[in-house]
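Record format v2
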Amino acid sequence: MKKRTVLGALVLLGVWVGTGAWAQDSFKVGLILPMTGPFASTGKQIEAAARLYMAQNGTTVVGKKVELIVKDDTAAPDVTKRLAQELVVNEKVQVLAGFGLTPLALSTAPIATQSKTPLVVMAAATSSITQASPYIIRTSFTLPQAAVAMGDWAPRNGIKKVVSLVSDYGPGIDAEKFFKDRFLFNGGQVLETLRVPMRNPDFAPFLQKVRDLKPDALYVFVPSGAGTALMKQFVERGLDKSGIRLIGTGDVTDDDILNGMGDVALGVVTSHHYSASHDSPINKKFVDAFQKANGGLRPNFMAVGGYDGMRVIYEALRATKGQGGGDALLAAMKGQIFESPRGPMFIDAQTRDVVHNIYIRKVERVNGQLFNNEFESLKDVKDPGKSR
Ligand code: PHB
């Protein structure tokens, strides 16, 4: 080859590599979230947290440029699945992530299996999700983890008779079942189990029923974002003045909306894996940075699922030295152990599910703002749904 031709080829190669056209040079993560519609707060929180993680940790890892491709599935399962397929086939993403609701994760599981692409669930929380594909890893939580903790706490604290009220789909049914089993085991009584539609729920008739049944407490699960409507109707039906206490999983007093709920939320006790007021240096740093980057928005448990999910992805990329390959990445995600803003957590290599502390928290006002303040903790809680 002539000298000039070699030089020309090298210049061309330089341009090619320099513009990032060399596919091997980038590492693409497809982040599929509900960015519009009733569950848009979940998408907003997770995207903001993923971007914060990248801003804090750099976008070049072992020589690869990490690219986040965000897609809005509008919380429609068929859209999630189609977007995942397009991301894998056309964009050649190495990891799929996000998944704001259980049906969205379940519809996409076959794509992960067929394409051998790790799928990191950052939000959805029905226990069975990780069993839908061997390529699923979870960094959110499971409802049984939270529900069992409350089934132990409530009867030890003067709550003997309960009515449960849950959203009528996977996570609500998990919450109802695992709370009830443990509560009955501890000598409690469940007067009624009520299920409300997941989309556009009207809580009023159900709350009227709760009033008539006069339990010591109402136990609830509603997905993140729906707590405001429930609380409003709780007050409108006069339940706040009825002496019926409100308990549940921490989804109902979600940090994103808690401050807007007002006095009705004071004293509500919930069990959950994350509170923005979790007392640790790592969490303080996370909350401060998140608020600074997002106009004062308080991060909720969805944000933490997204932040930790990016950590799991980054470390898998690092451990595999940028070689890629779904199986190698998946292997490097299993067994990761680290301190999250939620506290210590790890990814159980057997179940691919998250193991972390569950805290009992009470809503209190601190410096004029409402927080879920943690006052008891259960250490290293595995998903109780997996042992059945
Ligand atoms: C779910 O659909 O799995 C889900 C959504 C929101 C939550 C919890 C679980 O807050």
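The pocket of P-hydroxybenzoic acid is lined by residues 101-102, 123-126, 170-171, 223-224, 251 (CB under 6 Å).
DSSP finds eleven helices and 15 strands in the chain.
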